[in-house]
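Kindly draft a sequence, keeping tokens residue-aligned:
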Amino acid sequence: MNEAFFISLLCGALFGGSAETVHEFSYPGGAASIRTDCENSRRVVEFGLDKRSSLDSIQQALFAAEITGKEAVVVLIDTDGRFGRYEWRIARAANIAGVPIRIIPAALVADSDSVPGAGG
């Protein structure tokens, strides 16, 4: 199961949001766009697995919040059942930045009957 699986299952069920929303922005050298993992009327949510590749989750969530004017949230999917070094680093950075973080066990999500609103 990859990050896209968890986004598609959890974005609507837990956040009442839409996945993969694109936002344009300008910067001194031109224009570009970002794609949020999940977004509702109040929040932008960045999902990540408990892997090294998720270390940029805080930056992505904060930048999306700046672009949209919404609250940043980070959701980490715990794939190995332990609070390891990447969860620790991301959670510490989230706490310092004031970004809410939720850590959800992958095993819980794999059983979609346990996810509210995610019909199996």
